[in-house]
From TrEMBL:
Residues 208-361 form the O-antigen ligase-related domain. It is found in: Membrane. It comes from Candidatus Kaiserbacteria bacterium RIFCSPHIGHO2_01_FULL_56_24. Keywords: Membrane, Transmembrane, Transmembrane helix. It comes from the Bacteria. InterPro entries: O-antigen_ligase-rel_domated, TPR-like_helical_dom_sf, WaaL-like. Pfam families: TPR_16 (PF13432), Wzy_C (PF04932). This is O-antigen ligase-related domain-containing protein. The chain crosses the membrane at residues 6-27, 39-62, 68-91, 103-123, 129-154, 166-187, 199-217, 224-242, 248-268, 348-372, 392-418, 439-458. GO terms for cellular component: membrane. Gene3D superfamilies: Tetratricopeptide repeat domain.
Length: 727
């Protein structure tokens, strides 16, 4: 009937529209490269899912056939739901936030997408159309990457690593990884079928070259090595599966060339030309790179968290609590608020415990079993698909998924399931007729209502809050009062992103403290931000971030006693994070609790003496306490290198009238860094304060000659000095 055909087209349109979300950037939204794509994905799945559901209820032909892969996916979604409900922050586990747009709501949408695709794309022709569509879109994505490489388009994340329309080089890399392997798979099928070999060779071959080229210039090591390792595994499997064929010989040549190139690169890794090329430089320094070391520390912290909740884990989006509680002080040079382990095994161990990890790994297991046991796949297809799974999993050992890699992974699972189902014997038992065929119009109306309701519940408030937040953090012609009102409006939407709204409000409140804003409005900002951070802390009691932000806000507002309470709470949740101890020490100084401040800075220093900031804080605290000899032992190497030429050290010495020490430390520093204007002004002031105006004037005169732009300020200071007025 016409309605059935229309619903089928709606479902297919939603599925075929999904490859294009990679091009969508929602510039009017918070995290524009993340939120826009995810909202588009959810709404397309909701529309396609509603149409499919109406069809499946009245026509058994539109229902997915039973398979181990379907049962595994179902069990995984249910297991993670249980983990999320029993976790430490169920609200965030379900909704996630704007930065990630993950959580169970995304997992549920991916499951619905799997059901729709495996039920609607039931022919090889449809699947080929779908894969060709996404491959064609990857050409557009790659073309934009070429514009970035040529300097004709901006690289959104800065630097030289291409990110195209994804806003993140790592996300672009795994996107290209999938398309390289799938282009190779379809090329192989076209070659085996001997139909229009030349045309397909140009089409798929060009895509492989372009997408590999773009992947390389993302400089994403996990994806580059995953591509190489997956390709080598595929080549090795081709040799094993057909040892006497010409394909086996070609695969052997590929393996030999790869080994030679890899060996040559490793021997040349310290050459200057390697260090000048960003992707090669990152590969060459992979063992010593701080990011690689941080991955190891994260894995160690995640293991400690797993041991606390080994069966069902902490729930999705809750690694932040584990990171805080088991923080390794050696992480001082890295991001201080990790929310992912950057390792897929540990991410799922934390999110779902051992059951969650096994559920996730079962998707790979049953997909590979379907590939290898089903008669639907030729040997070369088995080799390529196995290589793809291996390369993708290797990539995930060093990072995490995003919505585009999720979609491609689930599409691959559905493709394998659909082909395996097509090759399996037809079921002997007729499927149950749930509703009569003539009820389709009523079912369709019901589906429209359900889709509208789900879409509104899942998306409307989140989108409204997101757009309102963007307005709230942007300058308003009506002034800060308008920003305040917009923050209140954004807080009124009770969905994901509440934490981000609260944190942005806290940042705005700290900004208005020293701004030319009426005092009553300042107080309104501070009060609302403090109240919201308290709420956030109550909702996520295992996270140190809300009380820490609250402590900083109250410190800036001058409420030092209340700030101490918040900072003590944060320290309880994350006792080894130096940043919290620094803020606690500054708070103690503000309360005139100098001994307490010294103890805080000492604790931070002793956690990891290699941390320069900790040495500076502790050294300055020792100087203020009159223990200069101890300070200079700690700062000995920093004084020699110039790293001790820091405003905190200068302020501490000035508080003890030891201007001679400032002169001794800053003189060699200025000699090595003559372009540092602030350091030269500080040295001149130290000379004057030490009773040596002649040297002070000499420094200012030299500064005028070296940097003429400082002449006005230098002349003013010289005039003050010659007049006997302290600058």
């Amino acid at each position: 009937m016409a309605l059935e055909k229309a619903l089928r087209y709606v479902a297919l349109a939603g599925v075929f529209a999904l490859p294009f979300i990679v091009l969508y950037v929602a510039n009017s939204m918070f995290f524009p490269f993340i939120t826009g794509k995810n909202f588009a994905f959810r709404m397309l799945v909701e529309i396609a899912g509603g149409a499919w559901l109406a069809l499946a209820l009245v026509n058994p032909a539109y229902r997915p056939r039973r398979s181990w892969l379907l049962w595994a996916f179902t069990a995984f979604v249910v297991l993670i739901a249980i983990s999320d409900m029993s976790g430490t922050y169920p609200f965030k586990s379900f909704w996630s936030n704007y930065e990630r747009m993950d959580g169970w709501v995304t997992l549920a949408h991916l499951f619905v997408y799997f059901l729709v695709t495996v039920s609607m794309l039931t022919t090889e022709k449809l699947w080929r159309y779908w894969w060709n569509t996404t491959l064609a879109v990857s050409v557009l994505v790659g073309g934009y990457g070429l514009l970035q490489l040529a300097g004709l388009a901006v690289i959104n994340q800065g630097g030289v690593r291409l990110d195209s329309r994804l806003g993140n080089a790592t996300y672009l890399a795994v996107y290209m990884l999938f398309h390289v392997f799938m282009a190779a798979l379809l090329w192989s099928r076209a070659w085996a079928e001997k139909n229009e070999r030349a045309l397909y060779s140009w089409f798929y071959g060009s895509i492989i070259v372009l997408d590999t080229f773009i992947l390389f210039f993302t400089a994403t090591r996990g994806a580059i090595l995953g591509l190489l390792g997956g390709a080598l595994l595929s080549a090795l499997l081709l040799i094993v599966l057909a040892p006497r064929s010409r394909v086996a010989w070609r695969a052997g040549v590929v393996i030999l060339v790869a080994i030679v190139l890899a060996g040559g690169f490793w021997m040349a890794r310290e050459q200057a030309w390697v260090q000048r090329i960003e992707p090669l430089q990152r590969l060459a320094n992979i063992k010593s790179d701080g990011i690689t070391v941080a991955r190891i520390y994260n894995a160690q912290m995640a293991w400690q968290g797993f041991k606390e909740r080994p069966i069902l884990g902490w729930g999705q989006e809750n690694y932040a609590a584990v990171f805080d509680n088991h923080y390794d002080p050696r992480m001082y040079a890295q991001e201080q608020w990790f929310d992912r382990t950057h390792n897929i095994v540990f991410d799922w161990l934390i999110a779902g415990g051992i059951l969650g990890l096994l559920g996730y790994l079962s998707l790979y297991l049953f997909a590979l079993l379907a590939v290898w046991r089903s008669g639907a796949f030729a040997p070369y297809e088995r080799a390529i698909l196995t290589g793809l799974f291996a390369g993708y999993f290797f990539y995930l050992v060093f990072t995490f998924d995003n919505i585009l890699s999720y979609v491609l992974f689930v599409s691959l699972l559905a493709y394998i399931a659909a082909r395996a189902n097509g090759a399996a014997p037809a079921p002997t038992k007729e499927p149950m007729q749930l509703l009569p065929r003539n009820s389709l119009p009523f079912v369709a109306v019901g589906a429209v209502v359900v889709v509208w309701g789900v879409a509104w519940f899942v998306n409307a408030h989140m989108i409204a809050a997101n757009k309102t937040l963007i307005q709230a953090i942007s300058p308003q012609t009506e002034g800060p009062q308008k920003n305040f009102d917009l923050f209140k409006k954004a807080l009124g939407y009770s969905r994901a992103g509440t934490q981000e709204v609260r944190e942005q409000l806290a940042q705005a409140a700290m900004g208005v403290v020293g701004a030319n804003v009426p005092n009553d409005l300042k107080q309104q900002f501070i009060t609302l931000a403090a109240e919201e951070l308290v709420k956030q802390g109550n909702e996520s009691p295992a996270n140190a971030r809300p009380p820490f932000f609250l402590g900083i806000l109250l410190d800036r507002a001058g409420a030092y006693a209340d700030a101490k309470v918040a900072l003590d709470r944060a320290r309880t949740l994350s006792p080894k994070k130096q940043g919290l101890l620094f803020e606690a020490g500054l708070n103690a100084y503000a309360r005139n609790a100098n001994d307490e401040a010294l103890a805080d800075f000492k604790e931070a220093y002793e956690l990891e003496p290699a941390y320069l900031e900790a040495r500076r804080y502790y050294g300055a605290a020792l100087i203020r306490a009159g223990r200069e000899a101890e300070a200079e032992v700690i700062l000995k190497d920093d004084i020699a290198s110039g790293a001790a030429a820091d405003s905190r050290i200068a302020s501490a010495y000035a508080s003890r009238n030891r201007f001679d020490r400032i002169v001794a430390i800053w003189t060699p520093f200025v000699a090595k860094n003559p372009e540092n204007v602030d350091a030269r002004f500080l040295l001149a002031d130290a000379y004057y304060s030490a009773g040596d105006p002649v040297h002070a004037i000499e420094i200012l005169e030299a500064l005028k000659r070296d940097i003429p732009a400082t002449a006005t300020q230098s002349d003013a200071l010289i005039l003050q000095i010659t007049s006997g007025v302290k600058p």
